[in-house]
Amino acid sequence: MTRTSNAVHTGRLLLTPSDPWHCPDRAPLIAALAAGGFIGDPLSGPEAAFRVGPAFLELLAFTGCAVSIATEPSPGAPFCHVRIPPAARVPCLHHGRNTRAPRCGACRGRLSDWRAWIGEGVLDPTAILRCPSCGARQPLTQWDWKQQGGFARRLIQIEEIFPGEAVPTPALLALLTATHDCEWRYFYLQD
Ligand SMILES: [Zn+2]
Q: Which of 15, 58, 68, 164 stands the most exposed, by the fewest C-beta atoms within 10 Å?
């Protein structure tokens, strides 16, 4: 696969509980990911960031035929690592340049003016939106953002992964579910 080292963000893979209000504690999450070999040694910095662990390539399924990921930090170049940022107090919408209009859970119609809804301010995750197609009213968090965005309090971020380049294996999702007794979902963002 081709990687570029210019300023364009390749992308990241994000894992989060399917219920965006659910917020597993960070310490047991880090402990479980370390015990499972998904993350390795911490990287220096203000946030909880980690080198990839010895089982990283077993727990993520890369779709390319010749996987070569950079795992050593080097200035100005992307390298693969895992971040577990502090949790948000309420679910926040995470979106990027790859995010598309979410779909209505009732009729699958698209909320085509979603970027206007978001505007500049902080979104209220309890806000009710009326579907322009079918009239159904549902909280913003229940619109279907597919694998291009969504609401979350707790995130596991894997940098840098092009959207679709790697997917969590059933073993990784099972590890997370077993640790926190909740279902997890994943999506991709490009800054
Ligand atoms: Zn609808």
A: 68
Residue 22: what pLDDT? 95
- What phi and psi values does residue 171 have, to the nearest 5 degrees? -65, -40
Which two tokens mark 71? 């795992």
Question: 19 C-alpha to center of ligand 1: Å?
Answer: 21
Compute, in angstroms, the gap from residue 144 CA to the centroid of ligand 1: 11
- Report the alpha-carbon distance of residue 29 to residue 153 in Å, rounded: 14
Cα 184 to averaged position of ligand 1 atoms, centre (Å):
25
Asked if residue 85 and residue 140 are part of one domain, the reply reads: no
User: Rg of the Cα trace of the chain?
Assistant: 17
- What's the mean pLDDT in 108-115? 89
95 within domain boundaries? no
Q: Is 34 helix (H, G, I), strand (E, B) or coil?
A: helix
C-alpha of residue 130 to centroid of ligand 1, in Å? 8
Parallel, antiparallel or unpaired: strands 49-52 and 39-42 = antiparallel
Determine the Cα–Cα distance for residues 74 and 58; give it in Å rounded to an integer.
Answer: 24
Same domain (yes/no): 152, 173:
yes
**76 and 122 co-located in one domain:** no
- Kindly report, residue by residue over 29-50, the tens digit of the pLDDT: 999 999 999 999 999 877 789 9
* C-alpha of 181 from chain center: 19
CA of 155 to the centre of ligand 1 (A): 28
Same structural domain, 18 and 81:
yes
